[in-house]
């Protein structure tokens, strides 16, 4: 079990840099329905890492399986949808890209340290970051036909990425302590790289 978890983390760490791309125009502005929306979060390391990290941290820091595992992932998915609707409506937020990079820095630290936060703090923190991720998606979708289906695909992929993170985190709860630290450091490093590009 530990060997499989370490192989999975190593694979993720190797693939994340290959998937890195900026938000705006990352897919050439091509959005066509549910399938494309579902695949979209999987094609950018920033969204992929953030969504998996939310689930990973939730599982690593949970004091009990229910409801600790679900507060942060549900908040992220819900506020991602809110942010995307804001972006579709043309709402402009300052510093979207730096905030997305900052979310990776914070989530990476949370994963590496396995800090348990009160539910209200966890929900508020990931919720704010999710709004910025959602606004980035919403701006990409603005003016597209079938935006609702594409958005549904994005939210569906988000939920599955959270679930994958939770499964990995639960498997790593009793693994060697360095494995979560390596995962957190990988997310943090990606966030630092993106922040340097965004400012």
| Strand percentage | under 5%
CA gyration radius, whole angstroms: 16 Å
Please tell me the overall pLDDT.
85
Count every beta strand, where a strand is a DSSP E run of 2 or more residues. 0
Order of helices and strands: HHHHHHHH
Considering DSSP H and I runs of 4 or more, what fraction of the residues is helical? over 70%
Fold and architecture overview:
With 199 residues, the protein is an all-alpha fold. Helix content is 74%, strand content 0%. The protein is built from 8 helices and no strands. The protein has helices at residues 2-19, 33-39, 45-61, 71-88, 96-113, 119-141, 147-172, 178-198. It is globular and about 50 Å long. The termini are far apart. Mean pLDDT is 85; it is low at 8-29.
List the helices and strands and how they pair.
Blueprint: H1 2-19, H2 33-39, H3 45-61, H4 71-88, H5 96-113, H6 119-141, H7 147-172, H8 178-198
Helix pairs in contact: 1-3, 1-8, 2-7, 3-4, 3-5, 3-7, 3-8, 4-6, 4-7, 5-6, 5-8
In short:
The chain is mostly helical.
Keywords:
199 residues; mainly alpha; 0% strand; globular
């Amino acid at each position: 079990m530990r060997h499989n978890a370490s192989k999975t983390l190593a694979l993720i760490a190797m693939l994340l840099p290959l998937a890195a791309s900026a938000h705006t125009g990352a897919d050439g502005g091509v959005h066509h329905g549910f399938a494309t929306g579902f695949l979209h979060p999987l094609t950018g390391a920033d969204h992929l890492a953030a969504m998996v990290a939310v689930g990973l941290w939730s599982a690593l820091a949970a004091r009990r399986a229910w409801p600790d595992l679900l507060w942060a992932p549900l908040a992220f998915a819900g506020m991602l949808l809110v942010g995307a609707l804001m972006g579709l409506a043309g709402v402009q937020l300052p510093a979207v890209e730096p905030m997305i990079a900052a979310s990776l820095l914070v989530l990476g630290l949370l994963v590496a340290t396995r800090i348990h936060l009160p539910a209200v703090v966890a929900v508020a923190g990931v919720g704010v970051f999710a709004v910025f991720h959602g606004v980035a998606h919403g701006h990409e979708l603005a003016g597209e036909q079938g935006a609702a289906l594409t958005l549904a695909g994005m939210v569906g992929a988000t939920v599955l990425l959270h679930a994958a993170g939770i499964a990995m985190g639960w498997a790593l709860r009793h693994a060697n302590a360095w494995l979560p630290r390596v995962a957190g450091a990988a997310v943090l490093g990606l966030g630092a790289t993106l922040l340097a590009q965004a400012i």
